[in-house]
């Protein structure tokens, strides 16, 4: 029990000055909620420099087949790597240092007394500096993301690069704001008639302790950095536990964070990469460790529910969701179906926000005031999907590749479910990667009575068309699915104001954000940093809310101190 | 599944105008954290009017021995009352209507669609209006509090009246601020080079649903109104379940809330009193009801831990705490001991913030630079207590009466514990209430090795003096107690700056607020609305934090909606 001197260092104050404008702008953006992005999503040479893409690809290739040597975590217990490219269907051959759980926890915990005494403003500035460093490696991270997740290049670049960095910045800004929202100190003076009581008071946001961030295989940085940066900015050392099949993108991020920490004279173990040894998953051991106080998790519901049941932990999860599309009435059916087909096809539906259940009334829907029969609506959806996937300029680049064989298997086994097939998967090829694991979306019809079929997440390129009695039933079922099985997004098409309000009201009660009448270049599976809240805790899909105040304030505790003023 | 029209009513906009200044001032106070109080704590005629006390006493007497007829909850299943005055040791004879759990839940749930559609500003204004009405009954509530809790008149008036109302206002202000912290709507426009994507977005704080507030026997309004008003302002209907022995004070508050609701054309069932039938406690049935989404609780740890373990509920608790006093070095030992003796004596230690464990080094403490032996320090504490309780002008009015016989029994059984008695309880009488159940504080010495004795809450007028090796051990033990068994307050006396920083640091990690070097008219068991955070979740004593953002934001969910702007 010793007091550690607050870290004094020339670099930190400089970083505070350097990044003040960005931090203030980010805090402002959180409250304005109009478009804001610090990291440009367009991978053009005009922004990122001539040859940046090629250099990133080369840098990625340099990493493959080798030990990943950039981490500053001391002598490892061994090296391990099991990533495989969905594009090559072959190992990428990077191996990472691994450490016993006790070593990771001990080294992380050892940094707590130093890290918690760095001020919130200094932590925020240091973390923004790390994002600047990561920015210089966006292309490298993009190729690493492609070859671990199967995302197409554009999504790999945007999701793992600028979009992830924006979400990280958002968490940093939110955490900074919450920690500085009350005065550090104040004189409290209570008038008592002839005299007054006078106390000097101060308040401190006290971090909770070691944090664990558990990544997923499909969005290794986008789903990891918000929790990671939220815990770091609030003073908690972090252990980043990536999915064994998607390590490289986040390993690069952690390496950059460690470099900045070291430059600031701080222990790089404030942020460690915790890779599983070859044949032993360490996630449970880490999660259950009494020194681990905060857990962020993205992945399946069973493990997420287990984590949520752990006593004395602050847990943020993003679990499975059953996302709905409600079709009621539209102006232009072709445009709607093109939009939905793209949403279904994008990264082969391997997104937590991808639509799965399409609720369509048996009497069809109104198109510009004219009733169009159910079968015609369904046929249009199938045609629109076929059109996207068969367009050689679009198909392969929208679909990407299937991250793992389980997803492919799920598509194959769909025909064993109750219902009828509306559109089968078809063969298409990717001209750049002839061995790519590709699976185009399938459509499958289910009756609204057969809840057991559509009340589960069927991760991947699978869309269920659920024939309902009317839109009221569609809304009731979409709400029920969200409340009982979770939902992260919802698409709704209606030209009827009253129906729109009903949908907002009912899906609102189910804690599910709704995108209305999307056509053109914006899709329900996309969401925007600094504007769209993501997974805010209103249903079983989770509470890893990028980024509302709850996502950051539960990572620390307010503690007050007071003492009479000598009068 | 119908949309309920948003409540339209002339009264609500008027109330918004009427209370805008108070609401804005309260929000400002939360962030300034200097002294602010909306409801004067001084029960003087100059403030509350000539004869207000007498009128309040008469009004209280009018209620005794009768049915409590002010609630607007429909035909009851029966009437029940089991309150006894600790001053008279006789029943007060008020009986309350009770209802089956299903009726309470159904009637509460039926109001949800209306209440959630009243705007946050209107809900806040309506609730402030209810506090104004409650203010007119502060004296009546004070006498009701005396004769249910055993508090002395002054504490009854202040804690159940103005201090409770200030805490309620604080919760209203915090809830209002959090719900209006993000824009209701915004145009989001993303530049895409030649064109831009333009979405109309809106965000809604969606309340979670029916809330249950479980009161305690010692502070029937102070510990109930924060959760009650926090849930109400965030749009959740509330069931107030009082302790069967302390109903009347909060029954008056609920009745006033119902009157204002009715005047606003709203269903009084938005806030119901849920009293236990004669021989059946309904708390568990209420808590486990699937429609109950939020629970606030004050009371013992066993039941609190059970509530916290319930799945799918948002739970706020204030449970037992083991509060410490650390004695290291002082300027004026007499003044310190007078202050601590008062803290021990105040309401016979029946406060969640009362000190219990006094850590004193075996080598004694430094007094104005001179070492004073341990035995002398301990003797001074005993003398100071004796002086307070034997002062006929102070003793009875500070001690009040013992709320229930279990507490009295606990004092008697103390001698069976390992250790030695330092000060026995003595006989004193209350001139106004000769039958009052009185028990003066006892001091008991325990060795620091005998953790099993002092690692439990000994609720009531019991102080343990724990002899430690040195102040470092005192701090380590106080921290350990807080982290393992909970703590809500801590007093520390040191003139050494380094020691002070160590205590702040270590007790901060244990989530425990510390009052340093209190002497004179301010005591560690007091805490101030709008300034001192109360129970912020950093240790097992609970997380019912009056009022930090977490206390209100977990009662609703942010949900966003978006739609392309027609261009």
TrEMBL record, chains A, B:
<dbReference type="InterPro" id="IPR050485">
    <property type="entry name" value="Proline_metab_enzyme"/>
</dbReference>
<keyword id="KW-0520">NAD</keyword>
<dbReference type="GO" id="GO:0010133">
    <property type="term" value="P:L-proline catabolic process to L-glutamate"/>
</dbReference>
<dbReference type="GO" id="GO:0003842">
    <property type="term" value="F:L-glutamate gamma-semialdehyde dehydrogenase activity"/>
</dbReference>
<dbReference type="Pfam" id="PF00171">
    <property type="entry name" value="Aldedh"/>
</dbReference>
<dbReference type="InterPro" id="IPR011975">
    <property type="entry name" value="PaaN_2"/>
</dbReference>
<dbReference type="InterPro" id="IPR016162">
    <property type="entry name" value="Ald_DH_N"/>
</dbReference>
<dbReference type="InterPro" id="IPR016163">
    <property type="entry name" value="Ald_DH_C"/>
</dbReference>
<feature type="domain" description="Aldehyde dehydrogenase">
    <location>
        <begin position="101"/>
        <end position="497"/>
    </location>
</feature>
<protein>
    <submittedName>
        <fullName>Phenylacetic acid degradation protein paaN</fullName>
    </submittedName>
</protein>
<keyword id="KW-0560">Oxidoreductase</keyword>
<dbReference type="GO" id="GO:0009898">
    <property type="term" value="C:cytoplasmic side of plasma membrane"/>
</dbReference>
<dbReference type="InterPro" id="IPR016161">
    <property type="entry name" value="Ald_DH/histidinol_DH"/>
</dbReference>
<dbReference type="InterPro" id="IPR015590">
    <property type="entry name" value="Aldehyde_DH_dom"/>
</dbReference>
